[in-house]
Amino acid sequence: MYNDVKEEIDEAILTLKMIRGNSGSEKNLEFFANEVAIRTKYKKKFTIFTVGNGGSAATASHFVCDLTKLVREKTGEGIKAVCLNDNMALVSAIANDRGNQYIYVDQLREAGPGDILVIFTTSGGSENGQSYNLVSAARSVKCEGEGVMVIAFSGKDGGALRDYVDIEIRVPHWDTPLIEGIHSVLAHAFINSLIGKLKNE
């Protein structure tokens, strides 16, 4: 926790500078933008699935909004994107009938080669506790050999998700609200980079 607004802003700026200067996260974010731009340019069929819990669920939903509306508005290119935590009727039905760990796994049964799963999480989850449903989702698409690329916007030490992701964009901090805020900044940086790449092709 921070004593005042200035202190928290200073900490966020410092953390962003760490990502900008000394972290692989910036390169990973740029690689991700390049990958989506290339797939879009060559009209490859793919879907981007996004997901998160709590505050990260809101980030996942916002990311789909920008992918589907803003990118098309700015470039004329459409990207198919689905947020797995948006359909509360479906999420609650799966949780009620099968359990919380399956709420995203079951929705990914239709994912296939070329698709991308983007996970927003401040902790990276664990194998038997916090955000286990996110870990289960990543493991399900990686271990079943479906050819799905898994991207994690993470924080702290990366958690159990580290074992199941292709690209990790980690915020080097342990404060949950700060990580969530920086995830939003990085998600917008991705969108703007993608728009720039599609315009320049």
Report on the architecture of this protein.
The chain has one domain: Rossmann fold, CATH 3.40.50.10490. It is built from 6 helices and 5 strands. The protein is globular. The termini are far apart. α2 packs across α6 and α3 packs parallel to α6 (176-200). β3, α5 (132-143) and β4 form a beta-alpha-beta unit. The model has no long low-confidence stretch (mean pLDDT 95). The chain is α/β, with parallel strands linked by helices and 201 residues long. It has helices at residues 5-22, 24-41, 55-75, 88-97, 132-143, 176-200, and strands spanning 47-52, 80-83, 116-120, 149-155, 167-171. Strands 2-1-3-4-5 form a 5-stranded parallel β-sheet, sandwiched between helices.
